[in-house]
Amino acid sequence: MGMLARGAALLAKHRIAANGHSGTYVRRKTGARIAIEFGLGSAEADLDTYDNASVVRRPIDFLVEAIALRTTAADASTQFLPEVGDVIESAHTGTARQYLVSPEFGEPHFVPPNARSSTWRIHTKEKS
Prior knowledge:
The chain is mainly beta. It is 12% helix and 38% strand.
């Protein structure tokens, strides 16, 4: 493992320790429930409706280590990608809530890790 990869892994570990929450990732297709640790990210966009009103959306982004998204934690062959319609259950606000994995602001529903990061950024919106 190179120095850059070690540094990214260390940063991810400290980010989760400082902004660490736990919840459950629920697969839409199979109903599998996976316990995950995550950090929180956010985005904001003003959506102009062109009728003298605007809507501000504040979706929640879950920052999840890629290796956490396995149906069997010790088996790398069970790794999966986040899919639209999956649900993340969390009580990080003090109340149990469900967040639907969905694309936001013209972006895909998740941003995969890159050479400097092993963390998925999963875009969600709160289910009503």
